[in-house]
């Protein structure tokens, strides 16, 4: 792909998307990002400038709500040079009262709106990458079964009705049904573009730009920032899963449209296991000033269990061809940025 290619990124101010924007600009792509307000777009542009990115190749367009019919039509009518469309925008929150309206509709309809706009107003678009999640792949909670294993062909069997039971299931449903909408659209309409999907695990790692408001950090980054607020005698809360670093997730979005062998594929972005005690152990070891401030917990519980029988993403790794960042670096860089000068 030529470096003059124009790439559109929906949800450009998101945690993952800001890293995608930076990596695209570094690779000399032209970037158009959708943001929900002018103020958010200007802040993103200012942040890029403050890190010495030339913003000649950066533009933003305002799309306040991806879930509204025709949400992307004007952007694509106005920018006929876009040839790659990265759809990252989707609600990532569990603090919702109306699961259908706040989670399912924007995720599913947002995806449908993106694909319909491309078919109608972006016939020159050749590559589409959608950010899904391992939530669209694995079962969890009351649906989990002993000994299950997952790979790029697995689907979360959750039903639409089951996803209305709680915000956690609602998020899983939103990712599952949004991703299914995309694959079904492609199989039914045989569009001009090829589709690739990125399915990340829990995403850790630093924000693309300095943090100005810790309370407003995206959901997955709060997993680490909340542990840093513990007092010496607090218990370390239970919490475990599979993680990946945000810089790898951003990189994968680019490989997904650049490489022919990534077309039509789901790519599982998963590095390995994590648990809260392991995060605390890494933090106490790497930052001696925190040793007396953070609880010690039970360091032995920080041992990470092998999840290679549960998760197999070898096919993804072969396509991506780069090494994933490990838990220690991901946690170290996150903590360093969150605590900054107070370290
Ligand atoms: P994030 O920081 O919350 O980013 C989400 C982006 O989507 C934000 O720019 C948000 O805009 C935008 N958005 C949400 N609802 C919207 C709507 N109705 N209309 C327009 N824009 C809307 O979260 P993230 O972690 O970067 O997530 C990005 C993508 O990765 C999502 O698709 C998410 O499901 C997926 N993912 C994330 C993780 C993770 O652990 N972080 C794991 C797997 C998959 P505002 O902020 O302005 O509201």
TrEMBL record:
Any one GO molecular-function label of the UniProt entry: oxidoreductase activity, acting on the CH-OH group of donors, NAD or NADP as acceptor
Top-level lineage group: Eukaryota
UniProt keywords, alphabetically: Oxidoreductase
Gene3D superfamilies: NAD(P)-binding Rossmann-like Domain
NAD-dependent epimerase/dehydratase domain location: 7-263
Xref: CDD domains: AR_SDR_e
Full protein name: NAD-dependent epimerase/dehydratase domain-containing protein
Species whose genome carries this gene: Candida maltosa (strain Xu316) (Yeast)
